[in-house]
Amino acid sequence: MNPASQPALQLRDIHLPADPGWWPPAPGWWVLAVLLLILLMWVARIALRQYRLHHQRRHLLAMLDTLARPGDVSPAAVAEISTLLRRLALRRYPHQRVAALTGTEWLRFLDESGGHDRFSRGPGQVLATGPYQPTLPADMDFTALNALVRDWIKKNTGRS
Predict the structure, then answer these.
(1) Which candidate, 57, 46, 49, 50, places its Cα nearest to that of 157?
(2) b or e along 137-149 (b: 16 or more beta carbons within 10 Å of the residue's beta carbon)?
(3) Nearest-angstrom CA–CA distance, 102 and 120
(4) Could you say which DSSP state residue 72 is in?
(5) Average pLDDT over residues 66-91
(6) How far is Cα of residue 121 from the mean position of the Cα atoms in its chain?
(7) For residue 90, how many C-alpha atoms fall within 13 Å in the half-sphere facing its CB?
């Protein structure tokens, strides 16, 4: 047979498949989305914790400012400062470790958790006996105690 004598074939042009749609995404995009979601939740958790610590620090320092007026130094003010420290310690450390501490054990705990021996050997000594005395010692440096307590609060709320 002669190819010229054959009838012309009815051929169509090449058809390309349709472009793939954007949905559903490929498995790699699902994995990336899950990883990004986990990362976002982790960052949000850290940010929330930092916000809470900052808010707690501001609140405690404001309470300390109302208690620690140099002209109004009394055993009751020292007791309130000790209570303020205990509240923070109970939130920050295990209850079994902090709740039963009194006297020199309490001061030793405060030293170990950020006081650097300034509670048991420095201006913080008044916290052990001051609340139970009718008057505070005349040589008590209330400004140094205030600075020490302020420093301890900052160290135990995430800011050094």
Answers:
(1) 57
(2) eeebebeebbebb
(3) 12
(4) -
(5) 84
(6) 29
(7) 9
